Amino acid sequence: MNMLLPALLLGATIPAIAQSAAPAATVWTDHRRALPDPLRRVPVGLQLWHTPNPNYPEPDPAQPGHFLWKHSTMVRNDTGQELEIVACGSFIWYSEAGWQANLTETPAEFAELFNCPRGRLKPGATYTFAKNYRYASSARSLYGGDALWYILAKDASGKLYKGLGLIETEADVLGK
């Protein structure tokens, strides 16, 4: 675990564009295991979920011809102690290649998006990223895939905890 935290912090500095182009092997080396490498062997202390899930695209009224998947992401600290955000992001699975790095958020970005002052998770409190939307610029760019969101946070002694939440995003526009 001593190597995990520096690797995650290093990964947090890589732009999301570069991460999404990285081969799956860089984040998911053991295909006999379900989780990407950075999320294995870290105890669960956070509950993370998305709603609605599964999620379907709908026309974007602000941009004709564009689409969006509207969903919210919530996290709750179940450890009984205050935790400090270390990393937040997601891995995506949309092809046979498996998990690929998608995006990362800094603790400051997490604090803003989840309305969580100073990136500190109070015990039992739920924090919400209300407009965690996915966008498509045209009907041709609609595709289904799964996103595994994760949050890593540490307690006062430095012990690391994780929360995981899978969201299914579908390609079919409802009502069509």
Mean pLDDT: 87
Model regions low in confidence, pLDDT < 50 over at least 5 residues: 1-25
What is the rounded Rg? 16 Å
| Estimated structural class | mainly beta
Task: Outline the biggest β-sheet.
Answer: 5 strands, antiparallel
CATH architecture: Sandwich
The number of helices is 3
Whole-number tally of structural domains: 1
User: What's the end-to-end separation, in Å?
Assistant: 48 Å
Coarse morphology: globular
CATH class: Mainly Beta
Would you tell me which CATH topology applies? Immunoglobulin-like
* Helical coverage, percent range: 10-25%
Q: How many DSSP-defined strands?
A: 11
Overview of this protein structure:
With 176 residues, this protein is mostly beta strands. It has a single domain, classed as Immunoglobulin-like, CATH 2.60.40. It contains 3 helices and 11 strands, in the order H-H-E-E-E-E-E-E-H-E-E-E-E-E. The strands form 3 sheets. Strands 5, 6, 7, 10 and 11 form a 5-stranded antiparallel β-sheet that branches. Strand 10 and strand 11 form a beta hairpin. It is globular and about 50 Å long. The N and C termini lie far apart (48 Å). The N terminus is likely disordered.
Which terms summarize this structure?
disordered N terminus, Immunoglobulin-like, Gliding motility-associated lipoprotein GldH, mainly beta, 176 residues, signal, 3 helices, 11 strands
